[in-house]
Design brief:
3 strands; 13% strand; 107 residues
């Protein structure tokens, strides 16, 4: 059975989110990424495989080493999808803040 990976499934895992954060500043090899975690390297490799399948991470072969880097285009697609929700919560918090200010001035 071949399951299609979903970007939101991929970023739901805290380890994969941590990997993405590591890769925001520089490209790293699997070994360099694994050195940041208290898990076995094959576990980190599985996380990298999932991130790569979802196209959140790109691989670049340099000699014998494979460097991983964030796929900014795919991350922008995720951010674009989330943006309306951020705006909704901003509006709700602004309304709550206005109510709280009115309540505070009445006391």
């Amino acid at each position: 059975m071949n399951l299609r990976r979903d970007v939101f499934q991929a970023i739901s895992d805290p380890t994969r989110r941590a990997i993405l954060l590591l890769l925001t500043t520089q490209s790293l090899t699997a070994g360099a990424i694994a050195a940041n975690f208290d898990t076995a390297r094959p576990t980190v490799s599985k996380h990298l495989q999932i991130l790569t399948e979802c196209e959140l991470v790109k691989q670049q072969q340099t000699g014998r080493e494979v460097h991983y880097q964030v796929n900014a285009k795919k991350m922008k697609e995720v951010a674009d999808f989330i943006e309306p929700f951020r705006k909704m919560w901003d509006d709700r918090f602004n309304k709550l803040e206005a109510v709280m200010k009115k309540y505070k001035t009445k006391k």
